[in-house]
Batch of 2 targets.
Target 1
Amino acid sequence: MKNIIYYSLTMISLLILLNLTACHSTNNKKTEQAQQTTAVQDTHPNIIYIMADDLAMQAIGAYNGRYKDIAPTPNIDRLANEGMLFKNMTCTNAICGPSRACILTGDYSHINGYYKNESGGKFNDKLWTFPQEFQKNNYQTALFGKWHLGSEPKGFDMYKYHNSANQQGEYWNPVYNENGKNVKEQGYATNLTTQFAIDWLDKIKNKQKPFLMLLQYKAPHRSWQPDHKYEHIWDSIEMPYPENFNDDYKGRELTAGDTEMTMDYLSRRDMKLKRPKNLKGREKIKWDFYGVKKAEIVQPEGMSKEQGRKWRYQKFIKSYLACVKSVDDNIGKVLDYLDQNGLTDNTVIILTSDQGFFLGEHGFFDKRFIYEEPLHMPFIVRYPKKIKAKSTNTNIVKNIDIAATLLDIANINTAHKTQGKSFKNELFGQSHSENNAMYYHYYEFPYWHHVQPHYGIRTDKYTLAHFYYNVDVWEFYDLTKDPMQMHNEIDNPQYAGIIKHLKKRLQELMEKYNDDKPLDEFRKITDTDFGSLVKLDKNESSVEKIISGKNYKYKKNKNENK
Ligand code: CA
């Protein structure tokens, strides 16, 4: 009996010991695995790149935007509070498709060949892009929302992009292209796009591979259609006006003074007027777009010119900000998802836009100019492990630097060289860049908005630009004295030395980036029809052709061709 008890006790002890050892070894394995995963995550963090369309700094609280008390952006502000806010992320060609091509390739438009939206053709899908490099390097990759480049997206395990209205996308019940197949969805685009993104994250989260996700909203692009719940939230409020809302374009008559992007060019559709029910096809488009041509003014009867102009601004800005509100809400959903799934620390999250936007400054809406508002992209990066919370960066960086930076953050080495350079060290607070100038070049003319093609340089203190298509105008702004760019000082003898020096620096940048060519070559790009973004049926016509009429030809004014 005694022996049996002894034997049993020995066996029990042995079993406990064995069990403990097993436990210990499992724990060891788990710790090892966790350490390995952390190491992988540290070296190859997840990346969520959120890009809204036409989102201006002036609409964001964290940038001390004009509307921050009336239309706050708490979720975008949270990113800034927990990360780094860039004050000088600049766009090298401030228009939708071209900026996207610059971001993807890390090269200027004249290198990637995607210059314009209108008649700009399709983006060359044979080109190197950063998502392809991530995919090759063991990242799970996806794209949701706006693509707007015509060709098939490359480098994504999954994509689902807006495929209606020339890939501009619709705000309501949009058609998406999901890995090559069109799917019509029901609901509001900003909410839908976010839901697809979160569903994908949920599907892949347990795989031991990092991810790169591009979440690209259609909002707040024209036609600025808010979610129904936000359609009337500011009806009783008069939104503030920018100080230079009543710009008279003195000294800039042939450039800023000769556009089709003032408040006088907002259409019936922009103003949310109710279209007669019986209209179809071309008639429907013509009705909607009434207002985009000279001498077509949309406003309620009985209003004075000045009242009408303010009325249009109020309608526009309220719709725009309501679209931004949905973008902000949805960024909140993504941040919540990261928090709830333990992904916050290991995920680099970026908020940006394809360019900035005028919100009434100079009396404008839209973008295109080297002027401050379209040139600047909001750019906020959160990565708790490496980026100091509440930090700001004022160095001049460019949209072509984004590709190299993302690859650098992910420690992906590539033999491919881009014109853009990584600014990771600045982002991680490890160095201070000496870059204090950028080169700019815009080509599209006269559609849309009639903005003269121009190239230029923006330094930490000055802007110098040459508008050249069928005018020959130089502009120079001293940004420390004239941040709103109301005084073209090109002929002011006080600045002669500075302007001469800047022209030299501009020339050097053109040479550096291989864009030092005769003006005629630039004009040829503007004049070239590179084709449509998407193939039109033979009965279809571009909106531009419908609204401009078959025989509509752009007419030069007498001051041009000097
Ligand atoms: Ca855009």
Target 2
Amino acid sequence: MRLLVLSDIHANLEAMEACLAALPAHDVLVNLGDVVGYNASPNEVCERVRAMGSSIVRGNHDRACSGLTDMAEFNLIAAMSAQWTQTVLAPENLAWLRALPRGPLRSGELAGIEFVHGSPRDEDEYLLGASAAAANLRMPGHADTIFFGHTHLQGGFAYGDGRIRPITPVFPTDEGIVEFTLPLAQRERYLINPGSIGQPRDGDWRAAFALYEREGDAPAQVTFYRVPYDVAETQRRITSAGLPERLATRLKLGR
Ligand code: ZN
């Protein structure tokens, strides 16, 4: 079984198209939310995500940009982009965003795996540190492998023998399409972030996603990918939409 996990596309059409062209073969596709917000192609990205027909959980930007929640938790720049997104979204995309389900999401064919935007206990929690990750991984009633987004940091946390350790992909080069494979130990529990397609914040500007593979009784593994894209075109669209310049400059910094 090959499960592809995408997250935090954030209306970045060029990053999404580059990833679509580079996707490895897969049987199942799951999207961890934040389809829109920040970048300037919300309708184009909504249409592509809807056409892919994947399972999806909603993100905080999906809620704010479709008017489901206010922007009290957003900084000024995020709020400006959410407001702009709300005004340009086509009615059918607004309705689709409003109807997205809250995580955690489970699917019958994916036993032992769960999908959330923020964390298992709170769809808006940022899983940035070991203590928050451990608290979530110690919660009973959740799957052993949990995919999460929201932080835009590719990697995650492993928990075993009472200890938690961070997972940090290491790539051979800063250029081109790269991948890093992590074998999963059967007695450990995992919180895995595929990274953000549309606005990475881990210092690598390339679009990020992940592939989970499991065959029979063999140990599962996760492969993290980074894919370069036409970031100059994304920046041009942000500028011509009149969105804050900071949203364009941060993309190339990966921050
Ligand atoms: Zn996000």
